[in-house]
Write the structure tokens for this entry.
Amino acid sequence: MNSKNFLSVYDFSKDEIYDILLRSAVLKAERGGKNSCLEGKKIGMIFEKSSTRTRVSFEVGIVELGGHPIFMSSKDLQLGRGEPVKDTARVLSRYLDAVVIRTFEQERIETFAKYFEKPVINGLTDLYHPAQILTDIFTVYEIKKRDLKIESSSQADAENIIKNLKIVYFGDANNMANSWVGLQAMLGFELVLAMPEGFEINSEVKKESEKKGGKFSVINDKIYAAKNADIITTDVFISMGQDEEKEKIDKLKPFIIDDNVVRNAKEDVIFLHCLPVHRNEEVTEEVFERFSSVVFEEAENRLHVQKAIMEKIF
Ligand code: CP
Ligand code: NVA
């Protein structure tokens, strides 16, 4: 493991992931208290795609940890006019202490990390959204711990909650699906991907998961997939940068999370969505609104979990 980067969930060990989840709960409870673990650190935020949650939660998190965020849209950088990633990285490493990057190909962030030589955090690529996936599992852990009235905050109890979950992801084989595959390989819950025939997880993602002993099933029947699910989740059908692939929507339409899916899941099922949501595309408006309090808690949790990630990295 390269201990200073967070380019995918594989950059942390299982124990480190649990440390982050448990620490996120503490940071959430202690929000507003003094924490200066990033004092004096200048952290760049290079965004080549739009963002509401990732941008603001990282910026606020950096400020709350005593650091100084510097937001850079690639449109305003020479990067956006074709300056090579490796040159940008070598220059910025002389000014900054770390960067958060949102970009396209995973190789782009990997190249940046190779030349930057200081911590690089993935704020979403075409392949992975690792800060989001740790937030999602933290959100589930927090709800289940409360519902099961578990007082202790031990790793053993957290593992026990998480490894017994059935998580079903509905929709596109995109960066969120890939991130669930990666997380499953690290934490070992049951993962089902409900997607149309012909939709497949990226072969590199599959290979990485298999190397770690990961397992998941792909099911083309959404109701069968939903049976006894503890968690149901989805994401937009068309991700950023895929605007020419609109014909995908027709194939994905039957995989909408609707009341029928919810009825086939466990009674206490939790619905997650990383946002932004396209109502009546990947989830019905009614289901989304019914579960929206959890979804907005999930959005808030980005802040707490990313603070725990940054603490771990520094
Ligand atoms: N979930 C998420 O990453 O949202 P943003 O695109 O708004 O950052
Ligand atoms: N799959 C989506 C996630 C947005 C947070 C995208 O990449 O656009």
About this structure: The chain has a mean pLDDT of 97. Residues 132-301 form a domain with the Rossmann fold fold (CATH 3.40.50.1370). The first helix runs from residue 14 to 29.
